[in-house]
Amino acid sequence: MTPLLHTSGLALGLSADVAASSAGAVAPAVSAAVAGGSLVVRSAESYSDAELVGGIAEIEQAIRAARMEQLRLIAEAERRRLFVEQGARSMSVWLQGLLNVDSHDAKTRIRVAGDVQEADSEGGAQLPDLPATAAALAEGSIGLEHAKVISKCKQNLLESSRDHDLAKVEAILADHATRMCPRDLAKLADRIRYLLDQDGARRDEEAQHEARELHYATARDGMLVIKARLDRETGAKFVEAIRPLSAPRPETDGEKDPRTAGQRNADGFAAMVDIVLDSDQMPRTGGQRPHLNVTIDFDDLKRTLLKAADEGMPGTLGATEQSITAENIRRIACDCEVLPTALGGDSLPLDVGMSQRTAPTHIRAALLHRDGACAFPGCDRPPGTPQAHHIVHWADGGPTEINNMVMTCAHHHRVIHNQHWKIEMQDSRPVFIPPTSVDRSRTPRPGGKALPAAYRDNLRDLIPKPRDPEGAP
């Protein structure tokens, strides 16, 4: 089998023998085939499945072997200081312009080239610093990214104050590189470094801790942008906390979670913030627990938004001084502490009343017992802190009592408000009525957690009737 590599409209034939040959033989073969252009272009559709598999692997092997030849030439160009003749201020700048690669890539190739190339000395040529890596590169069994990992590990161990068997370490990494992707190889190299150079590893951890940073700013569109660099311990805590909260929702009627990974992470982060703000362990400011401060005119909050969507004035988020729609405030206010504040004409506070929790602890406990974490039909394992939703909103006179409230997860709480689902209580259990945009017939859907009583009602006809005692009249 002779697979073909399409390059600039030409086809390069690479046999397994060529792919496995030394770099010195592969590079001229590649150059001659591309320059001559005498080979016939073969359509990829004409390959059999076996030829495709073999061809892709062999071409990758040949490319890697050719890369080793390029590294050899880069090392020689640096030895001759060709960049000076070319008018460049450094080897990396010259290589960056020659190959049209970024600075990091150019520096990586130069460093690896120095490690895998034979060094000149007065007594003659010496073996490369990474002989096993050089051999694996020449065979095409590893790539440049593998060599970069091995070179970095060697450099870290050289900088430590202890003597290490670098040849043994390099041989182990080069051997594993033939079976590992660069990412997994980097984990192995990190493990070796932590084993052999614990002092250096501790210094790195301290440096990471000192370099920690988290920035947040409000973008022009009103969204909050967060950028962070966390040390490995804090990073692991973050991943451990957000991973279960950002997991895909279970399939519903064969449909997978439509959210992207980024959206799931954002929802998981929002749920994590809810859990933190609901915790009694958070530090208090001025005697108050952390809270989301939203300001809005009470009359605007009371308006029925379906009838007066254009009349409600927006509210203001206290932490960021951003506007927020009255509709979203109604959703937030379903399960929060409301602190009435009378404002004068200059918008300064005149009087502050007592806060009122719309879902006190005993009601939330009862709702959780009846509804579970989320009463919405089909919801399973909702992330975050459950939110108590008023069926008739408290701002519209709805009472804060069990028969006027349901538990929802954050996602379905937003769905109920945004899509305008209707909720009714039937036999003390919530029933959800979808909008016409979801179901034209608006067929009611029972919600809540299945209870033994509900099972008994549904299976009443299957329960045998008690027999009359013998001898009874």
Automatic annotation (TrEMBL):
InterPro entries: DUF222 (IPR003870), HNH (IPR002711), HNH_nuc (IPR003615). GO terms for molecular function: endonuclease activity; nucleic acid binding; zinc ion binding. The lineage of its organism: Bacteria, Bacillati, Actinomycetota, Actinomycetes, Pseudonocardiales. This is HNH endonuclease. Residues 244-263, 435-473 are annotated as: Disordered. Residues 362-414 form the HNH nuclease domain. Keywords: Endonuclease, Hydrolase, Nuclease. It comes from the Bacteria. The keyword Transit peptide does not apply. Belongs to the Rv1128c/1148c/1588c/1702c/1945/3466 family. Residues 250-259, 457-473 have a biased composition (Basic and acidic residues). The keyword Magnesium does not apply.
